[in-house]
Specification:
By secondary structure, the protein is an alpha+beta fold. It is built from 7 helices and 28 strands. The strands form 8 sheets. A 6-stranded antiparallel beta barrel has the order 13-14-17-16-15-18. It is globular, with a radius of gyration of 33 Å. About 4% of the residues have low confidence.
Length: 543
């Protein structure tokens, strides 16, 4: 989560069930966030245990896939509305319908302008679409001009659901700002958003044999593919070591402090370019990547910002590296080249970047473009190259630092990171490293000998579910699963009472006493005997 956090403290292996606030204590963001994380973990674990890996409620199962083909247009997929759970995470494919606005004018003239029954001038209905499609799904941002976004040209292929979470701040969603807080419009809390995307996987990547595999074979092959795609394959460790030049610095921290920074920080190390160690790059921020600047206008390499930082620590300076992103690129999880700030125009709230942003980024105001600042510099990469591992000479690649495995790479102020050998890196994977002035070190798991432990990324956690096997214009085999509600009609009595009633009926039908030789013999019904006795008493009374 790119948010201004102190740290993340949720550890499922500790089995905490709640955060308990105490009177007179400081309230921390980490405590409130841990309570939320505990509740989400419990709810999603329960849902996954009851439902399984994926499934939808019977009668409201979402994400039904239908192929919409055309000889002249690109193929499309219709995504049916409803709900679906993937590893306990709720995904809702119901398309919101627009509200009814107040008419612009009243009277007969307005009725004639709008047309009869909500139709336009040509008499065609103007109703909004009811379902999503592959091309307009809310968080997919598929572009027909990009060949990689088009559906596979050859059948068969598998339509599947990709689910993950990302953070949204006021830089991306201005509605989160409370205008009552003043003209400075400070942001408050951020949001976590579930992102679902319907994507296509060519059948050749599943390794299936034969031309007509069964549904069970398709599901099993996809499960194997999804397990490999979602399992992280890189590890990192962090530590703090007193730099050799620490004696040359002003005495702003303890002389024996290994972390030499003057303030508490939450360092974020994030993979930029994916691939093996030879191709992968990373970037880092001492503010968890939370320093962002909403963009008002883009003119070539000049960017007009809606606001600058609140202080020097959270501002932009010449030489800073920034990432130009918007809602579409954030949802797609793309790695765009980082750009360098070349010039500042503070009165005009403008900055000049080293190059124009990637095509299609920042040109649509409705996608809320913004700059995200990262804190590494090219000098830091050269310093990393002096760690004894050499590598690529410390040069930046697309503005990011090269991954160098098997050696400690210094970031700043004594903070160092170590990439384990043999890793495969995915764009967006990240690790968080809290650095504290009180201890003069970083918080990182270690063994009994105080050796830092290698950790898998803290995120991004990606989940997958199969939806449909698309093999042509004919019917599309459905791969979804459905579950029925647990509720049922309330019985007249519980099981014990029903069993007792059954025994009583048996005793009324058969005499329990011996009938010669110790065997049970049929007898008249007790109800009939009782009725005869009552009739005899009545007759005697009348006589």
């Amino acid at each position: 989560m790119h948010a201004d956090l102190s740290r993340l403290t949720h550890r499922p292996e500790r089995h905490y069930s709640a955060v308990i606030a105490q009177q007179g204590r400081v309230q921390l963001d980490a405590d409130a966030n841990e309570q939320t994380a505990i509740q989400l973990f419990q709810a999603r674990t329960l849902a996954a245990d009851l439902i399984g890996g994926h499934g939808g409620p019977s009668g409201a199962t979402g994400f039904r896939i239908d192929l919409r083909g055309g000889s002249r247009e690109l193929d499309d997929l219709v995504i049916g509305g409803g709900r679906y759970y993937v590893d306990g995470i709720l995904c809702d494919a119901t398309r919101p319908q627009p509200g009814v606005p107040v008419p612009a004018a009243s009277g007969a003239g307005a009725a004639e302008q709008d047309g009869p029954d909500g139709a336009d001038d040509a008499g065609e209905p103007t109703a909004a679409p009811v379902t999503w499609t592959y091309w307009d799904q809310p968080d997919g941002f598929r572009d027909p001009e990009r060949p990689g976004d088009r559906l596979p040209a050859q059948f068969p292929y598998l339509a599947y659901l990709k689910v993950w979470e990302r953070s949204v701040t006021a830089a991306e969603d201005p509605v989160l700002r409370e205008v009552a807080l003043g003209s400075a419009l400070p942001d408050t809390a951020a949001r976590a958003k579930v992102v679902w995307q319907v994507l296509a996987l060519p059948g050749t990547e599943l390794g299936l044999e034969g031309d007509d595999p069964s549904i069970d074979e398709i599901r099993k092959a996809f499960d194997d593919w999804a397990r490999k795609a979602s399992t992280p394959a890189s590890r990192l460790a962090a530590r703090s070591e007193r730099p050799d030049q620490a004696d040359d610095d002003p005495c702003l921290v303890r002389p024996d402090a290994r972390y030499r920074g003057p303030e508490n920080q939450l360092y974020r190390v994030e993979v930029h370019d994916a691939g093996g160690a030879r191709d992968a790059t990373f970037k880092w921020s001492r503010e968890n990547g939370s320093v962002t600047f909403p963009v008002d206008e883009l003119d070539g390499t000049w960017v007009e910002l809606a606001t600058l930082g609140n202080d020097d620590k959270l501002d932009l300076n010449v030489g800073d590296l920034v990432e130009f992103v918007d809602t579409a690129t954030a949802s797609r999880g793309e790695a765009l080249p980082l750009l360098r700030v070349e010039e500042l125009d503070l009165p005009g709230r403008r900055v000049r970047l080293s190059d124009e942003p990637a095509p299609g980024v920042g040109r649509r105001p409705e996608l809320h473009p913004y700059l995200r600042r990262w804190d590494h510099r090219e000098g830091g990469a050269r310093q990393a190259g002096r760690s004894g591992r050499g590598g690529r000479g410390g040069r930046l690649t697309h503005g990011a630092l090269p991954v160098e495995e098997g050696g400690w790479l210094p970031l700043e102020d004594g903070v160092e990171v170590y990439f384990a050998a043999g890793g495969t890196y995915r764009t967006g994977d990240f690790w968080l490293i809290p650095a504290r002035t009180a201890t003069g070190s970083v918080e990182w798991p270690a063994d009994a000998a105080r050796r830092p432990l290698l950790q898998y990324p803290a995120g991004v956690a990606v989940h997958h579910a199969p939806l449909a096997w698309v093999h042509g214009e004919q019917a599309v085999p459905d791969l979804r699963l459905a579950f029925r509600p647990l509720s049922a009609a309330v019985p007249a009595a519980d099981d014990a009472a029903l069993e007792a009633e059954a025994r009583a009926r048996d005793e009324e039908t058969y005499d329990a006493g011996p009938a010669g030789g110790g065997e049970s013999a049929p007898a008249a019904s007790r109800s009939q005997t009782t009725a005869a006795a009552e009739a005899a008493v009545d007759e005697g009374g009348q006589g």
